[in-house]
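Re: the request from the purification team.
They wanted to know what the chain is likely to look like in 3D before they choose a buffer screen. I agreed to run a prediction and write the result into the notebook, where they can find it.
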Amino acid sequence: MAPNIFNSFSGSGSEVLRRRNEELERELKRSHEREEKMSKELEKTRTRLRVVEDAEERLCLQLGELEAEAVDQARTYRAHIVALMQQLGAAQKLLQQAEIHFEVDYESMSE
């Protein structure tokens, strides 16, 4: 049997050591509990981070698709405007060639 450390001290000294040992054991237990709690909290944070990163990726993808759609719509709109301008120019030329002048009879409109 190994010699007991407490036997080499007087009664009050061994009591002090025993209490100090118990205090250190309680401190160690609290430290392990804090460590476990922090470890769980870290895992929760990592999970939330993964969720946020996935959401960010989806949003970036959607934004890219919307930007491409907006560019396509702008090109279509511009082509439509150009076509309307060409039609208007052609109509103006026809009117100039025919020398058609419109006169508005404001008196008949008010009746």
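For the purification team: The chain has two helices and no strands.
Please add any questions underneath this entry.
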